[in-house]
């Protein structure tokens, strides 16, 4: 039987990193539905990330994206984050937007383009030196749309060369999080398409290179918790980009599409005693809120990750291991399902029945700043309502 006080303590200590880009306007290639009151600057994104931390208590860092969060003085931005009660997290590079990258970035057949892309990776490490960030998150949209377009093997050689330059530039506790993605924007072949490719490059690079699992980056039906378990056993799981998907890299709220999968993933983390910040996995969100209010959606996502974690912490592991050792299939599955089917919402949400925070103008909870409204007042207004509904009651105990 799980020790509830230990469960509560583990949940208090959990850390979930929010993505700066999720607070701003973003959407699909078909349309970005701009929303009033969204942040216009990195500072305003950080202020919104601080609002999420204020309500959840477990989101003390915000990942940056370069160049979307480019500023003149990153030390000053880091100080601004600290003044708002949070810190800067992973630095995300972007080698997918410039026209030069049409045929790839670090794997491009043109050495000049490869140089430009690799220099951007090195620029990101320079920024980490100023922000004090540990994590350099690398995602490459590099790939091919047609067979024969370029040489698959040479592209791996080019990728390895760029990764080696970035890896050798790291210092202190800095590390690489190499993210993979099955397809998109390339459709025939992606140069880092799966966990095996990322893992192999990370092994080749050394101990400071680890894999980042984006939960939206697999073929439908992929057993993600197997990947989690394997990488944990190899000491090569560095981070998650949590989000939800129904069909592709949909970047919907974490836990919204398949909370059972999120629970199974978090069980493997708990089983490996890998939940604590000291263990070093960065539990990040990577989402896009095109049609829903952003701050409440990110709070919902953080709470969904905590809900899955709470359930995973409730698994009676002694009984489960015993049933597994005895080959008692139904008992073992039943023990896992007992934890999954436990309603942990009263612990995670305020209100008598554990109702969810339901933001929205009709419920007196502004989704974002009203047009022209001072951001500080909007944040306080949002706080007033959301805070009562979504603060974790146990945080006071
Ligand atoms: C792209 O699909 C990947 O999920 C990236 O992790 C993410 O969108 C990017 O890091 C944002 O800059
Ligand atoms: Zn991602
Ligand atoms: Zn993605």
Automatic annotation (TrEMBL):
Keywords per UniProt: Isomerase, Manganese, Metal-binding
UniProt enzyme class: isomerase
GO molecular function list: L-rhamnose isomerase activity; metal ion binding
Disordered: annotated segments: 347-397
GO terms of biological process kind: L-lyxose metabolic process; rhamnose catabolic process
EC number(s) stated in the UniProt entry for this protein: 5.3.1.-, 5.3.1.14
SUPFAM superfamilies for this protein: Xylose isomerase-like
Gene3D superfamilies, alphabetized: Divalent-metal-dependent TIM barrel enzymes
Basic and acidic residues: compositionally biased ranges: 352-361
PANTHER family: L-RHAMNOSE ISOMERASE
Protein name: L-rhamnose isomerase/sugar isomerase
Annotated source species: Catenuloplanes atrovinosus
């Amino acid at each position: 039987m799980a020790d509830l006080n230990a469960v509560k303590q583990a949940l208090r200590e959990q850390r979930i990193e929010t993505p700066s880009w999720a607070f701003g306007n973003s959407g699909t290639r078909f349309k970005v539905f701009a929303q009033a009151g969204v942040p216009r600057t990195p500072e305003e994104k950080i202020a919104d990330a601080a609002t999420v931390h204020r309500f959840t208590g477990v989101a003390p860092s915000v990942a940056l994206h370069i160049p979307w969060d480019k500023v003149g003085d990153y030390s000053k931005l880091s100080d601004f984050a600290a003044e708002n009660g949070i810190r800067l997290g992973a630095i995300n590079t972007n080698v997918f937007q410039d026209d030069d990258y049409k045929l790839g970035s670090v794997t491009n057949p043109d050495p000049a383009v490869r140089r430009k892309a690799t220099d951007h990776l090195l620029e990101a490490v320079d920024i980490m030196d100023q922000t004090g960030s540990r994590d350099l998150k690398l995602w490459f949209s590099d790939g091919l749309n047609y067979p024969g377009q370029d040489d698959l093997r040479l592209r791996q050689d080019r990728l390895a060369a760029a990764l080696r330059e970035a890896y050798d530039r790291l210092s202190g506790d800095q590390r690489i999080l190499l993210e993979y993605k099955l397809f998109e924007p390339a459709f025939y072949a992606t140069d880092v398409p799966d966990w095996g490719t990322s893992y192999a490059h990370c092994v080749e690079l050394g101990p400071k290179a680890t894999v980042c699992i984006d939960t939206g980056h697999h073929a439908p039906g992929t057993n993600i918790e197997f990947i989690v378990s394997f990488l944990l056993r190899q000491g090569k799981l560095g981070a998650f980009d949590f989000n939800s998907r129904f069909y592709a890299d949909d970047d919907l709220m974490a836990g919204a599409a398949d909370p059972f999968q999120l629970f199974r993933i978090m069980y493997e983390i708990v089983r490996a005693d890998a939940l604590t910040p000291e263990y070093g996995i960065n539990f990040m969100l990577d989402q896009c809120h095109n049609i829903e209010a952003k701050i409440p959606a990110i709070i919902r996502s953080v709470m969904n990750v905590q809900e899955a974690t709470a359930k995973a912490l409730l698994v009676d592991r002694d009984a489960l291991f015993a049933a597994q050792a005895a080959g008692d299939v139904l008992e073992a599955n039943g023990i896992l399902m007992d934890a999954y089917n436990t309603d942990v919402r009263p612990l995670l949400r305020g209100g008598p029945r554990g109702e969810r925070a339901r933001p929205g103008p009709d419920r007196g909870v502004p989704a974002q700043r009203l047009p022209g409204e001072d951001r500080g007042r909007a944040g306080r207004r949002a706080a007033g309502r959301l805070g009562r509904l979504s603060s974790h009651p146990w945080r006071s105990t």
